[in-house]
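Hi team,

Filling in the usual template for the complex we talked about on Friday. All components are listed, including any nucleic acid strands or ligand strings, so the model treats them as one assembly.

SUBMITTER: L.P.
PURPOSE: interface mapping
COMPONENTS: two
RESIDUES: 880
SEQUENCES:
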Amino acid sequence: LLRSSQPLTGPNRRRCREDEKLLGTIVDEDERGFIIDTRSAQAAKQARMSGGGTEPKSSYPQWRRLHRALERGRLLQESFVKLVEACGDASLSMDRWLGRLESSRWLGHVKAALSTACLAAQCLDREGCSVLVHGAEGTDTTLLVTALAQLILDPSCRTLEGFQGLLEREWIEAGHPFQLRCARSASSHARGKQEAPLFLLFLDCVWQLSRQFPFSLQFGEQLLLTLFDNAYASAYGTFLCNSERERSLCKVKESTHSLWAWLNQPEERQKYLNPLYSHNPLVIWPSVEPQSIQLWQGLFLRWIRPSQHLDEAWVEIQRLVEGS
Amino acid sequence: PVKYEELYCFSFNPKLDKEEREQGWKLVDLSEEYNRMGVPNNYWQISDVNRDYGVCDSYPTEVYVPKSATAHIIVGSSKFRSRRRFPALSYYCKGNNASICRSSQPLSGFSARCLEDEQMLQAIRKANPGSDFIYVVDTRPKLNAMANRAAGKGYENEDNYSNIKFQFIGIENIHVMRNSLQKMLEVCELKSPSMSDFLWGLENSGWLKHIKAIMDAGIFIAKAVAEEGVSVLVHCSDGWDRTAQVCSVASLLLDPYYRTMKGFMVLIEKDWVSFGHKFNHRYGNLDGDPKEISPVMDQFIECVWQLMEQLPCAFEFNERFLIHIQHHIYSCQFGNFLCNSQKERRELKIKERTYSLWAHLWKNRADYLNPLYRSDHSQTQGTLHPQIAPSNFLYKFWSGMYNRFEKGLHPRQSVTDYLMAVKEETQQLEEELEVLQERLANLQKSQSGNNKVKSKQQDRSKHFGLYTSNNSLANTPQEYSNDLKSFPSRSPSQGDEDSALILTQDNLKSSDPDLSANSDQESGVEDLSCRSPSGGGCLPSEDSGKDSDEAVFLAG
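RESULT (copied from the run log):
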């Protein structure tokens, strides 16, 4: 599984021998690879006009390109805001709630993200082919897909430790611009141009996986909520800045504490573990049918409905499993 | 089928003897239930005025009425009520004497009055000294109720009935509900719908809106009884559909007994079976008028499921229990849900010729337990308080019911079953520990140093291993893309209860949106033009994982 940003093909269909060679080393003589472009075919084509583009078939003959348009940027932020508004709208009658939920399109984005990740996983696991994922910049939807694909495929990413490693690798070190994307409180009306809840979308997808595979993730919802909070405002330096370079310039590692260090303390760690966890060595294939994708109540209704009854249920589960 | 004798229950033979069959029918005893509630007492008495079904043929032979309601009043009131369904007790609250009574609509037209009916309502009020008025709740939309007046029926006029507070709680009629389900099933049958198709389809069906309406009505009544201490008289048109739904939801909220397995069976026997819900007409035991078909009980069962999702520790039984009950409403494998009234069932000698579902479920009750239920838990005590508003988002699509057979849709690992296994194992281990401790104590007493303690071979593998090794079952990908080969595999359906007997598209296809000739004489307010149902069966299931319950309370 590889990731990159878009090739700079441009309007004149430039070629780059080195790039072609690099991709050539991935696939053997008569093998095929897949390129998953997280832009629509049209958007990818249009990108040529501004110097970007796609890998032309003639130059990359062993690679087959698939387009899966995933929303990002301002539109994704709008989607999120609409959903939050719909949840908070006390005057909304039941016969309009679903329509509002739908017009936010948020669940559609969750479905699309999971489907694309599953597609990547399928290429790897079932077709035995290498996969290259990129969008435009390679810092948003690209990371969404590669991180989710690894969760699906690799049981070691599903342990608490492995998941932290996944986040470090695929989001933080890979250069997701947290500072720009999570600049303000998530549902602020003042919208920065670069603001977009990609990381939240990722966490939502992880939550969907945990709901569909309740025994397969070593961590629970509480971890996901904590990560969401810390991406926006944190006492720790883990999610600061936009890249490793910036973190190095700002001397983040020298001047702040790591979120992981805190989370991994024995007393803290306890809170984030899933009492139902049992190592599952297999690939976990989620259902992406609409019925299987649910509203993440724990996040979106967090401040709207009391979670007392559900919390009590969790305490019971813990009691049953640990008491045995 | 045209005759009752053609139904499965008359040939079903579980190889039990006569005594066991009888015992099965005695499992649920309504007179015991009324006693448990606290009646008869100073305010309520049992009346045998209907002992030969002479007053109302859709009511049971034994009804509970207020002490001051004489036979004359009862008979007079019954003549002023649709189908003669006079006000009778559904639930009595020991704690404050408030009660839930049920009836059908009064035949008031525009201006008719009936002294006995007015006295009946007064009697209900007097049976609760703690309040000087009662609520009268009409579960119909106001428009429909008013339209009924033109046909000589209608609703209670506050001017005529002293000390009542009248309330409409608009729940739609059986035709609207039938069409709503049809539309929702159409959505379920779409091939690879987008999120948008699904949500719009669900909203257009109105299904969850109706579920919420029933729930809200139940909550209103439960509040009136528990918090205000005021008695409530509930009716719709004929008092056997919406009235049953709303009374049983309210009872469930009020009384923790109904949230136990046994109590739930009792609740259904009381408010649905004994009070003459028309099972035959509604669920098509025999071929009949398609306009009578309606998923009334399905809706009640779904209300219970929605409650279970919101309050995971509150019910002794689990989702599977609900699904199996729903299955058997249509299966006709047992005699409980046959015919349209107690009278018909007695005439057909159902108890002598068929078996009781309750005995069957009770025998298998280990499968139906909710591992999170503890009778001493706060959620199981007293009245339930589900969130009222805002609460739209709390209503979920019940894919465990409506996509039951598409195994690929459900979490492939059943949390309920796993927890039950853990619970059982823990219990076993605790029992063994006790035994060993006793032995140890005995050995120490006898002080015989040469005795060896035989360690008991513990068979842990039984349930525990089975559930944690769920993982070894193959897990196949869904269809994520047309670009790749797909990997279809069908999983065989398992067990009797899993065969497709829920209200399917085919059953509903014959329903006629034109309401002018309906038996209910209500004006349809909704647009009921149905799209022609899309052809095609269920979505193919691509997973070979084992059947599992939706994890009902997963907070991640």
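MY TAKE: The first helix of chain B runs from residue 18 to 26. Confidence is low (pLDDT under 50) at residues 451-474, 485-556 of chain B.

Thanks, L.
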